[in-house]
Design brief:
binds zinc ion, 180 residues, alpha+beta
Length: 180
């Protein structure tokens, strides 16, 4: 869940690293970053949290641009950019959600939740590093087990602070270059 984190992080990263992209398009489509969570109607983290959904949804976005918004206008580059931005926003959502209990990423081809857990531990006496990482597949019903979805978590806030700092630094650097 965490709608603020889902919405702001991919947007700030795009604005910081791809400043030449059409801003109107970037802002207009940024709402797609929270679109997958609308599957809470059927069961949160289910059918919209799949790679297939990301592709189908983005293709629909492309069609809307091609045949409605830019109909009879020669704007194929913008239509394609709308597709790529939609892929970016939906994939970013899935990436932020990949933690426990996982996502049905490959549904309907593989009906398990996929998650990746990695922990690196350093033994303070021997300095030995121990790694535990696992590629976990949980049964799909586990996705809807938790009745309460977090609105914001500590991890979300920390991530937001880091990305905001990156954005501010990039912004200041650009202005600095402009005046010097
Ligand atoms: Zn989600």
């Amino acid at each position: 869940m965490e709608p603020i984190v889902h919405f702001l992080i991919p947007l700030l990263i795009l604005l910081a690293f791809k400043p030449n992209l059409n801003k109107k398009l970037v802002f207009a489509l940024s709402i797609i970053a929270i679109a997958p969570d609308f599957d809470y109607v059927f069961g949160h983290r289910t059918i919209f949290h799949t790679l297939l959904f990301a592709f189908i949804f983005s293709f629909l976005v492309y069609l809307v641009f091609r045949f409605i918004i830019n109909y009879k206008k020669n704007k194929e580059i913008e239509n394609k950019n709308a597709f790529y931005l939609s892929i970016y926003y939906t994939f970013f959502h899935l990436l932020l959600d990949i933690g426990d209990p996982g996502l049905p990423l490959l549904y309907p081809f593989f009906d398990k939740l996929i998650t990746f857990n990695a922990v690196f531990r350093v033994n303070l006496q021997t300095n030995a590093i121990k790694t535990t990482s696992s590629f976990v597949t949980n049964p799909i019903v586990q996705a809807t087990h938790e009745p309460a979805a977090p609105f914001i978590t500590t991890f979300g806030i920390v991530l937001l602070i880091i990305v905001s700092l990156v954005f501010i630094i990039t912004f200041i650097k650009k202005k600095w270059k402009f005046f010097s």
